[in-house]
Amino acid sequence: MRECPFRGAIQGAGMWQKGWTEGAAQSGVSQHFREGTTPFGEAGRARRAVWFCWFRSGVHQACRWVLTSVLLLGVAVDVVFADPADASAVAPPDAVDLALARLAEDRAAALTKLEGLANAAGPVQGKAIAKWLDALTDGPERERVPELAKPLLDSPALSSGQRVEVFASYLEVLAQIKPSPVSEDAIIGLTERLVASATTDEQVSYWANLAAWQLRTQHFANAERTLNAAIKLDAPRSSSQQRAGLLRNLGVALAQQGKLEQALQAMLQADALMRELGLPVDAALVANLAGLYVYLEDWPHAREYAQRAYDLAPDGSAGQLTALNMLGNAAFGLAEVQTARDHFERGLALAIQLGRPAISERNNLALTLLNLGQPREALTRFQEVIRLADASEDGVVSAVARKNVAECWIALGDRAKADQWMHEALQFYAKQDVPPKRKELLQLMVENLEAMGRHAEALQRLREYHALDQEMINSEAKARIASLENDYTLKSKDVEIALQQAELQAQQADLERLRGQEQNEALQRKILLVALLGLAGIVFALWHSLRLKARANRELMAKNCEIEAQRIRLQELNVTIQKQSEEDALTGLHNRRYLQSLLDRATQAESDPAPASALVIIADLDHFKRINDTWGHDAGDQVLRHVAETFRSVARAGDSLVRWGGEEFVWWCPGASVSEGPALCARLQAALASAPIVLQGEAQQITASIGFAPVPVWPGISADSALGLKLADHAAYLAKRAGRNCWFGYAARRTPDNPGSLGQTSVDVLEQTGWVECIAAPG
């Protein structure tokens, strides 16, 4: 089988792109291209594999288009709203630019200056942070960027545009680290958090940067979804440079998934939009389109775009080498073999000029010469390929080149020498794991041996071919084996008949009948074999389908378990957060927020025909400021925790204890009446008196001024629960004024007609008008 004369064009198209080696290795393409050749039957697959790599060259540039648009918007906003008074307050506005100008001549000093500006508050701090990280990204210090950028994303010094720029630097470096230290889910979560507080334009930029990272890390399906979301957000501005970049990257994502027609449409839209906006021609986009047309075998368009790519590339550049290889592809596809030769010769000269071994370029040119009927010149070229491949210890290329030499000798009519070269190639393949290439070689050996009349050897090689191709075998291959076996049998019988012809004339009719019978049996065997292969194919398809379904069910079950575990963790986290939001961190009692919710619930309950009663007790510690002033605030905290424990010791089951604020505590007693207030207050006083606290070796007696009131104030009548708290607070105030370490309380006296109107009335007025009465501790 012939070799593809434009294999080198495909490799060249990938080599010019930044990051080619990394991309090829990840996609499994590099091994294929190192072989130096591609069979005509597999040329499409080779073109597709490398063409996918071409597309990645445009991702970073499109991302910078989006970022540039947002930065320009951020600069405009800063200019409009800048305060002139701040201009001279700190560092000069051009300090960052001066540091950036020194990067080329003194990188270390420039980076030190940028770092200092990034850590100093001032009008240029945000700009310094963004430019510092960008400078680190483009140099050997890039490994510092992830740990620096993530916390800086929350810096208040950053403008919205600068935050997008920091995010872009962060993702650009992460994409270069293999394996990635951060999961895709974590990066998506970070993006969603930043998007939540961003404008629409900024949201588009965040999604575009995420998509660029997904493309560079080969999350192509997710990149497609991200880009579609960004394009939908950008819909109001259907004609913009930002949209052109999004469309081009969408073409990349689609192409990487094999959705080539959709990829073509997306990239053509990007190209048309850039021309409509009068933007400079994007050389990477043109090269991508040329590669796409090559793969789709649309040779006229492939030639058109490849020529555009060549014209756009700098003279003598790797970009021109890429274009020359694609032009050779297109010419060969249009059956213009001589033109293809011209392109490949120019490509070879340029590859040598660029300092490359040019093994693939030499191989392409040699194959073209062979197709032009110049086997002698092609032979010389292939021998040079063998010398270079052997020197580089590339066994696969060496084997393929020897097979190509064998084809040259076949074309020159010396099949014996061809057989020698093919045996050498077979020995090389025995050391390499490249079954497809070995299969091609075996097929060529079978054809050569048949032509030489060595049918037994041809049959042996064909059986080797069959054993190597078990998974791809078909009825045509089986028929070929049966045909060779039948031919071999027939030739043997012809020899026997020729020797015995004089004696066996009478048996000629029987021999003819026997021959026909054997042919019928061979045909029956072929038909039976085809049927068995078909049945085996059906069984395999059913087994494979069941296996896929089982795996999908297992994955679905695992995902459901994961979701359920996440739901449980979320519930537990909500409970913890709820508890922390209503708990005082120092004492472990409830806090003011909890008390407010308690009062709200009590107020709602009072709207019932028979609202439940409760008693609220407020205790204000006496001389607490003296404790803080004398022994310090740590001692004050110790006293508050001591008092909290005392409250817990006297509280009833179902009561709620609240640190209301500072040294004030609230004791909420559901179901208790006013008549129980004095006893509860006395119980608290006794507990405090019986448990003095030792501060720095000295026992201190803690006392409190206590007040209480019922909730609701008037039994059976709804009113604002805050009124009861207000009365209890005033009662505690009376206790404080009466000399401390005592209690006062309030009880309902006369029931008002409209209790709801008394919520804003002072306690003194309520007492004077007879609505409530004060209860004082005895003696």
Total of helices: 33
Mean pLDDT: 81
User: What is the CATH C level class of the domain at 592-776, in words?
Assistant: Alpha Beta
Strand content is 5-15%
Rg for CA atoms: 44 Å
Outline type: elongated
**What separation lies between the terminal Cα atoms?**
118 Å
Query: Helicity, in percent?
Result: 55-70%
Main sheet specs:
6 strands, mixed
- Order of strands across the biggest sheet? 2-3-1-6-7-8
**Total number of β-strand segments?**
8
Low-confidence stretches: 1-91
CATH fold node name of the domain at 592-776:
Alpha-Beta Plaits
SS class? mainly alpha
CATH architecture of the domain at 592-776: 2-Layer Sandwich
Q: CATH superfamily name of the domain at 592-776?
A: Reverse transcriptase/Diguanylate cyclase domain
